[in-house]
Amino acid sequence: LQGALAVGDDIAFKTLELQGWVPNLSAFKRGLIESLDADGAATIRITHTQHAHKILPRFRHPTTGEWVHASDGEEEEQAESEVVVCAGSDLHEVRLINRG
Predict the structure, then answer these.
(1) What does residue 30 show for φ and ψ, rounded to 5 degrees?
(2) pLDDT at 74 > cutoff 70
(3) Cα separations (Å) of 66 from 21, 62, 63, 73, 93?
(4) How many CB atoms lie within 10 A of CB 5?
């Protein structure tokens, strides 16, 4: 990304997420920048999210001895039009879709 982000920009970006205690970059998310703070924090209304396969650790069940996947306890579905506030350093691989 060349230049600074501005209010109204339509961007695609990735964030660092924990998936079963393993840090991993998310799939691309797309959103509109609603506001920018003086300290660099951006309020982004997420308009589209790709659902990526989650990587979860496996362990042997103590009773059956079978390999089972650990649950991270998170909901699979994401609410439409979610609003997030994050620092500019929390956004990775930012792509400008449309200048606002």
Answers:
(1) -120, 140
(2) no
(3) 21, 8, 8, 20, 39
(4) 20
